[in-house]
């Protein structure tokens, strides 16, 4: 998260007109690494939970306030925070093999990435609850139908399709940034408040011993499944 935030900080002040967020390989994002989180929380849960909360909050807030357009190309799975931040971006393209899942309750966590606000607004409350509470695994076409993804392309030609459709390189930077600002103007305060609430709940989950037990059980189940 800190590395992505650092890259965005550089892009915010250079002469680029937009950011293309993509990956090398077949996985877009597997979400937070709970093996690492458990290791941090083992020694000083209170201090570690505050640090983790601040990291996530700052990461998400940077997407909220980032002025340049963010285009996302999703290949393969986008899980947890990797899926929940997508509505904070401006255009999301996916290949046919992409899928999206936010199975927070399965590993004893609460939603993040402002998804408690963005998902119900985009896909309706019922579908949002299926994603955030029930952990519905949504394929690329379903994500497009629900408004989480802009367009879906064939895997074989995905990169070419993305590059062809990036037509804003010739646009005026002032026009791009102000067009985005107009679209986001009425939402930013609400998104920041949602991010604050979500991170506060995560901190409350991580701080007590019971929160650790849920995560340890999830990590152990992953090991057993492997």
Automatic annotation (TrEMBL):
SUPFAM superfamilies associated with the record: ClpP/crotonase
Q: Which positions, given as ranges, span the membrane?
A: 18-38
Under the heading CDD domains, the entry gives: crotonase-like
- Which Gene3D superfamilies does the record associate with it? 2-enoyl-CoA Hydratase, Chain A, domain 1, Lyase 2-enoyl-coa Hydratase, Chain A, domain 2
PANTHER family in alphabetical order:
PTHR43684, TESTIS-SPECIFIC CHROMODOMAIN PROTEIN Y 1-RELATED (PTHR43684:SF6)
**Highest taxon, organism lineage:** Eukaryota
Q: What is the lineage of its organism?
A: Eukaryota, Metazoa, Chordata, Craniata, Vertebrata
InterPro entries in alphabetical order: ClpP/crotonase-like_dom_sf (IPR029045), ECH/Chromodomain_protein (IPR051053), Enoyl-CoA_hydra/iso (IPR001753), Enoyl-CoA_hydra_C (IPR014748)
One of its Pfam families is ECH_1
- Keyword Transmembrane among UniProt keywords: yes
Annotated keywords: Membrane, Transmembrane, Transmembrane helix
Q: What is this protein called?
A: Uncharacterized protein
């Amino acid at each position: 998260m800190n590395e992505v935030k650092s890259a965005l900080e550089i892009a915010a002040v250079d002469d680029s007109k937009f950011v293309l967020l993509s990956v090398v390989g077949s996985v877009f994002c597997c979400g937070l690494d709970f093996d690492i989180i458990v290791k941090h929380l083992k020694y000083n849960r209170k201090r570690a939970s505050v640090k983790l909360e601040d990291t996530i909050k700052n990461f998400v807030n940077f997407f909220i306030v980032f002025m340049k357009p963010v285009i996302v190309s999703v290949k393969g799975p986008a899980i947890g925070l990797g899926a929940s931040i997508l509505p904070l971006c401006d255009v999301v393209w996916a290949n046919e093999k992409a899928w999206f899942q936010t199975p927070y309750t399965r590993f004893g966590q609460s939603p993040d990435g402002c998804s408690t606000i963005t998902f119900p607004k985009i896909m309706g409350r019922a579908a949002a609850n299926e994603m955030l509470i029930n952990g519905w695994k949504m394929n690329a076409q379903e994500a497009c139908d629900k408004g989480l993804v802009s367009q879906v392309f064939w895997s074989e030609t995905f990169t070419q399709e993305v590059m062809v459709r990036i037509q804003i390189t010739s646009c005026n930077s002032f026009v791009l940034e102000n067009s985005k600002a107009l679209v986001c103007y009425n939402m930013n305060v609400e998104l920041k408040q949602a991010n604050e609430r979500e991170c506060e709940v995560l901190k409350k989950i991580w701080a007590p011993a019971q929160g650790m037990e849920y995560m340890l059980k999830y990590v152990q189940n992953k090991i057993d499944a492997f």
